Please model this.
Amino acid sequence: MTTNFAPGAALGVPVWLAVCALVALFCMLALVGFFAVVILRRADARHLPQALLGLSHVISAMCGLLPWGKPTPPPALPNGLETEAEPLATPTVVLVREQPEAPVVLTRDPR
Model:
């Protein structure tokens, strides 16, 4: 059994429609790639996890535009960018003599 396709059709789809679909898919991928490059170049290293999470939101939303895609709800963004800072270490000065009796450690006043 042979199947005869119409002239100007690939796998039963008109060539112009297949080309339009490929161009649309390429444009969506190029748009996501462009935004990824711009966002990752401008983001600080400490904000990189939040930038990547936001980029995953964009990619998930773009999946909804595909005919077979189902956008999934990505994980929620963290509440804040604040991180617990470590307490500052007190600077110390160590004096060493030629023949020390005992090492002397002085803490410097942080003023």
The chain has a mean pLDDT of 75.
